[in-house]
Amino acid sequence: MAVIHVPRPSRKAMNPHRPISSLLLTQIGHLQHAERRLPLRYRTKIYTHAIRTEAEAAAYIYEVTEAIHQAHADAADRRAARPKGKGGRKPVAQARKPKRKGGKKVATSKKKKRSTKKK
Predict the structure, then answer these.
(1) Residues 6+ apart with CB under 8 A from 4
(2) What pTM was computed for the model?
(3) Which residues contact 18 (CB under 8 A, 6 or more apart)?
(4) Where are the domains of the chain?
């Protein structure tokens, strides 16, 4: 197999004090959306609107990525610990559907019809 040589990035490639680019800002927005779907115990306490430098963005990206990996690992552990087979939880009883007459729904409560005649 042929070896592909990848050149080292220049020293200017990562500047921790440089303001974040629109690409990093978009990535932070996507990660924030993903973070909102995590359970509360995995969420970071980082306020994303205060992120202004590449170093702050890198720290946030690292924290959220680690939280996502930890949430998936914990879920896999819980699935593995579950007993296999048909035992365990039973399905919840379903509510009965109201009977229909002629394709129309039957009212659940009976109301008296008021007459429109005036006395």
Answers:
(1) none
(2) 0.62
(3) 53, 54
(4) 22-81
